Every structure is written in structure tokens, then in C-alpha cells.
Amino acid sequence: MLAVSINIVYFLLSLAMLFAFIRLTRGPSLPDRVVALELITSIVVGYVGVHAIETGVASLLDVAIVIALTAFLAAIGFARFVERGGVKDD
Amino acid sequence: MIEVLVSVLLLAGASFMVLASVGVLRLPDLPTRMHATTKAGALGAMLTMAGVAFYFSDSTVVARAVAIVIFIFLTAPIAAHVIGRAGYFTGVELWEGTVKDELRERYDSESHKLSSGLDDKEKPAPSGKKEDGPN
User: Fold this and answer.
1) Are B102 and B63 in contact (CB under 8 A)?
2) What is the DSSP code (8-state) at residue B90?
């Protein structure tokens, strides 16, 4: 039961990451790409949680904490960069 | 029994993440894309972490999962706010079907003054196209 649903969840998360990656490559402006990157890191947090369940290693949650923290800092940094006159249109 | 609960939570979280990514792929402009990712992505991460917490049923793991959820729920609106602000001020064009943009006629992009709408005399000049962002 749990193994089957973990496989389904892996498939769904891969599908979500594919869609977000398409937006990351296509996105017309830099903020669109930053939004896609933030969604990708959120998906990766989900991956790490599911992998922690699958392997039974609870320490992997620390990785999820670090990824969430890094994603927030990256978003803030990108926003400062865009707002202080970086590239307007990629 | 706990496996069924964990499976349901994981599947729901992954479904919300797929929904967020479909939204970020299909929606037409930056604010609508952020509308999809911020809420559905955060909810998907929260449901996944709830599944992790129920699966391990250990106090340290539950504390860490709750910490992740609180952190995501604190930072996702802040990140969306600063990205949306930066995108708006650098002139990312809105969808052509946008009905109302109240900020554009109230906000002066040069002096960063926001008129309240109650002072009905001189309105800041409606700058149609913003050419550079704030300093």
C-alpha cells in the first residue's frame, strides 16, 4: 500500500518538476523564472520527505530544512537584484 | 492504518504540487503564476511533511516537520511579495485580460508616493510605461 503510493508520489512529483522546469526555461522574464525556481525547491522538499519515508532515515528532514532556507534566501536575493536594476528582460 | 493515512497525505501533497506546477505552466502572467505556486506549493509541502510526521511518530521528527511547515508558511508569502514587487516595478507586462490595476494609477514610480485616492486634487502623472525600477 505505502510502497505503491510512494511510487505514485514520485511520479507525480517528477511530473510537477517537469512542468516547473518548462516554465523555468520558457519564462519570458526573470521574475517568472524565480517563481519557477521557488516551486522547484518546494517540490524538492517534497521529494526529500518522501525519500525519508521510503528509506526510514529521519535525518533527511534536516536536508529539507536547509533546502527551504536556501530557497528563501535565493528568492530574496533575486528580488533585490531585479529591483536594483539588473537585467530587465532576459 | 497509519499507512493508509500516510499514503493519503502524500498523495494529496503531490497532487497539490502537480496542481501548482500546472498553474505555473499554464497561467498567463506573473501575478497569476505566483497565485498558483505560493498557495498550492506551500500546501503540498505541508501535507507531505504531515505525512512524514505521521509515519515516523517520533517527537523529534514531528518537531522537525512542524518546523519545516512553519518556516515554509512564514517565508513563502514574503518571497512572493518581494518577487511580485520587483516584477511589477521593473515593468513585467500583465495579462491583456487584466480587468483592473489599481496600483498603476495611484503609484508614482519616480517618487515612490502612493496616493490614497482621497486627495482628489493633483493626481500623479499616469506614467504609462515604467522605464526603470526604484534606485
Assistant:
1) no
2) T
Q: Does B85 touch chain A (CB under 8 A)?
A: yes
ipTM of the shown complex: 0.88
Question: CB–CB of A31 and B84 under 8 A?
Answer: yes
Give the pLDDT confidence of B60-75 residue by residue, as tens digits: 999 999 999 999 999 9
* CATH number of the domain located at residue range(s) B2-94 in this protein: 1.10.287
User: How far is it, in rounded angstroms, from Cα B38 to Cα B40?
Assistant: 6
β-bridge mates for residue B22, sequence order = none
Residue in chain A lying closest to B40 (CA)? A39
Instruction: Report pTM.
Output: 0.83
pLDDT one-digit tens code per residue, B65-111: 999 999 999 999 999 999 988 888 887 788 888 888 777 777 776 67
For residue A52, list chain B residues with Cβ-Cβ distance below 8 A: 52
Q: Where are the domains of chain A?
A: 2-83
